[in-house]
C-alpha cells in the first residue's frame, strides 16, 4: 500500500515538473519567435546605415544593412579560434575560406603581383560594400594604369589581432600560397581587446570559448543564450533604459576599466611589445619566403586627431577617457618605430564625416586610407 502511495506521489511530482518544463520551453520558443519576427522586420524594412552622414547619397545602404545583419557568422578554425563563414549577397560576398571579395583585383595572370592584406574588421570592410573596402580601393588604384597586374586579397577578419593574422599568413605559406607583398593594417583591435580584458594576449571571442570549456554545461547554456535572438532584443531594451549602456553584451563605451598609472603604462607597453614581436616574426618569414612586409598603424576616432563633425563628436564623447588615453599611449610608442607606417593622424585636416563608429570608416574614409596605403606601397615597391 505504501509503495502505491509513493508511486502516486512521484507520478504527481513528475507530472508537475514536466508541465513546468514544458511551459518553460514553450515560453522560450514564443519569446525567441517574437524576437525573430521583430529582428526580421528591422533587418528587412529599416535602413540604419543610410541615415548616417557619409551614406545618404548611396542607393545600396538598405541592402547593406540587411546583409551586415545576416553575414559575419563565424566557425571554429584550428589555431585561429574562429574564421568567417561563406556568404553570398549583393553588397557582401565572402568565400567558403572566409575571404571577402576584392573588386578590381587582377589575379588571373601568373605574372600578377600578389598582395595579401591582413587586419580586423576595418580591413574586412565592416560597414561598406565589397567595392568600397580598403583592399578593393587599393586594387582599383594599383590597376588603373595597367602598368602591372596586381592581385590584392582581403584576409581581414572580424575582431582579429595581429597574432591571429600571423597564424593566418603561416597557414597560407604552408599551402604554398606565397605572396609578393604582405600589408598588415592594425592597431585598433590591439588596443580595444587589451583594454577589455586587461591583457595584450586575448583575442575576440576568447571569453566565450573559455566559458564553454571551463564552465561546462552552464557555460554552454549561457553562450547559447548569448547568441539567441532574444538576447539581442533584451540587450537593446537594457541599453535603452540604462544610463551607462549596460546590456546583455558588453558595450565598448561602458567598459569602466580602472587602471593605476603603473598598470596603465604596463598595459600600453605590453600591447606594443606583443605587436612588435609579431612584426619581427613576419620579418623573419619574409626573409625565408622572399616577400616584402608592410606594417601600418591605423587611425581611430578615439585618438582625437580629427576636426570632428557633430556626429563624430557624439561618438567620441560616449567613450570614457581611459580608452582614449590608452589609444594615445600606444600611438606615442608606435611612432618611435620608423619602419612602421603610422597613419593615425590621416584625417587631421578632413572636415567631413569619415567615421561611422569609433574605428570603422564610411566609403569616403576608406578612399582616403586606400590612397595613403597606395602611396606607401609605391614607395616600398621602388626600393
Order of helices and strands: HHEEEEEHHEHEHHHHHEHHEH
Could you give a short account of the major beta sheet?
5 strands, parallel
Q: In order across it, which strands form the biggest sheet?
A: 6-5-7-8-9
Provide a count of the helices. 13
CA-to-CA gap between the ends? 97 Å
* Overall pLDDT score: 85
What is the CATH C-level name of the domain at 75-198 and 257-382?
Alpha Beta
- In terms of quaternary structure, the protein is single chain
Give the CATH topology of the domain at 75-198 and 257-382: Rossmann fold
Strand content: 5-15%
Q: Helix- and strand-based class? A: alpha/beta
Number of strands: 9
Can you name the CATH architecture of the domain at 75-198 and 257-382? 3-Layer(aba) Sandwich
- The CATH H-level superfamily of the domain at 75-198 and 257-382 is SGNH hydrolase
| Helix share bin | 40-55%
Gross geometry: globular
- Stretches with pLDDT under 50, minimum 5 residues: none
Radius of gyration, in Å, reads 24 Å
Compile the SSE list and pairings.
Layout: H1 2-45, H2 61-70, E1 74-77, E2 81-84, E3 87-88, E4 93-94, E5 113-119, H3 121-124, H4 134-143, E6 150-154, H5 162-174, E7 181-186, H6 188-197, H7 206-214, H8 216-226, H9 229-241, H10 261-289, E8 292-297, H11 310-318, H12 321-334, E9 341-342, H13 363-382
Helix pairs in contact: 1-2, 1-9, 4-13, 5-10, 6-10, 6-12, 7-8, 10-12
